[in-house]
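Q: Convert this sequence to structure tokens.
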Amino acid sequence: MIFGRQPTAMPTPDNALPGRSAPAFPVPTTHEVLGTPLAGPWPEGTHVIYLAMGCFWGAERIMWRLPGVVTTAVGYMGGFTPNPTYEETCSGRTGHTEAVLVAYDPARISPGQILKAFWENHDPTTANRQGNDVGTQYRSAIYWTSPEQEAAAHRTHEAFQGELTRMGAGQIATEERPARVAGTFWYAEGYHQQYLHKNPGGYCNHGPNGLTCPVGIADLPAQVSIEPPRESA
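A:
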């Protein structure tokens, strides 16, 4: 990732970078790990939710390891600039956050189970920051696409806030809104897709935060192994 202190105030539509009318780069068609299409078509009944939890490299790996996930992809969402590049997003002048598209089979995994992994593997109390990564492009976010996902977001937020309060750990700063309001998910460059599969020793600041989101535990699938975070070289 690009380090250094970046803007922590959102641009407005008027002063955001203008972007472009067409993508600036090609995007791979297939998930390097799961072998499924990055942009569909997916099996009938597949649902999609968009999550942001800092650097999208580690966030995507957490999500593709969950049982029932059909595919994942990284991209930029929640801002104003059409067809942004990584460098533009990292400038803080597009309004986007680094996000992960999570397509999943609702018969195998629920939104609550996905969000349990979301809450437990980053710090949702730090606005526009995850560890060394500072800027609006690293803000925590949930963008839902269905009433079920919205209900799960509210339910898990409340449950995890209860744990944070019990531990004296602050207030959740996660942005939570419908995907249709957050806007288009713009796919990131090919080298970012499944980055930690291609670069197993690459930078990752994600891992268990030591707290448990106590929602739907009885319905969870077998526990997923999450590697501890690695510092950059």
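The chain is about 20% helix and 15% strand.
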